[in-house]
Amino acid sequence: MSSRKTSHLYALLVIGMIAISFSAIFVKWSEAPAPVIGMYRLLLTNLVLLPWVWSYRAEWRSIQRRDWLRMTMSGFFLGLHFLLWMESLRHTTVASSTALLTLEPILVMAGSFWLFKQRTTSRAVFGIVISLFGVILIGWGDLKISGQALYGDLLSVLGAIAVVIHMLLGQDLRQRVSSYVYNFTVFLVAGACLAVYNISAGYAMTGYGAKEWVLFSLMAIVPTVLGHMLFNWLLKYMNATSISMGVLGEPVGASILAWILLGEAMTPLQMLACLLLIFGVWVFLVNDRKAPQSVSTTADVGTA
């Protein structure tokens, strides 16, 4: 891959990183239940993508049953991720919740090695260590071993595990399925799963004010289309670990935005930690190896 194309891919990764940083802010601003926010975020994204469905009709028909099953599983775990993580923001701070999500690259790297035999360099691993140290410093003042905050922290960890499964399934599927078809299917399944949950839990599906609908729409456009959808597209050209490392930048962006827009405290130590985290991500991306374009072990993914 040419250095120019690689630079463009990293630029898109940064755009996605900035976009997902707004997610926690929109959730904090909204007064709607977390599962309702997640549902409308996904279904409104599908509404944006709907005009192009017909042009992909040939690909829809050619997808094998095995891949339909895997896309359904990927969508389920994405919906579960949104449910757990958005709910965590009701119980803990933005810095703490997003910091715990950074377990993702470690779990993705382990899963990629196990499923796809993907290796990385020792320098790239060093970059992960630097970044995680920065993340620990960001969330240090917010991680409280007490009832409500601990519950929120646990939800964030479980949300990280769910999104790792979603990412690993996506890395396999994106070798055979176009970005549009993958995104539309996964978002639709995730939104439908959240709709079923909302109905069973008795949450109101309508009756929300104009402010809430604006926030639902912003969640669809900014962190979903410009964030998650962009990451799913990048899975064709970058490995899941690299993209997950880019997600490490979310605590930086989210913490800064929470400080500016929500008035959540940000100490000088956390500011220094943000710079350390960014440096660690840069070290990883410079030294990581590109994932192979073909995956020889795809038959083993998602069949357990």
TrEMBL record:
InterPro entries referenced in this protein's UniProt entry, alphabetically: AA-Vitamin_Transporters, EamA_dom, EmrE-like
Keywords on record: Membrane, Transmembrane, Transmembrane helix
Membrane-spanning residues: 9-27, 39-56, 68-86, 98-116, 123-143, 149-169, 181-201, 213-235, 242-262, 268-286
Source organism, top-level taxon: Bacteria
Residue ranges occupied by any EamA domain in the UniProt entry: 11-139, 151-285
Membrane topology per record: Multi-pass membrane protein
Similarity field: Belongs to the EamA transporter family.
Protein name per Swiss-Prot or TrEMBL: DMT family transporter
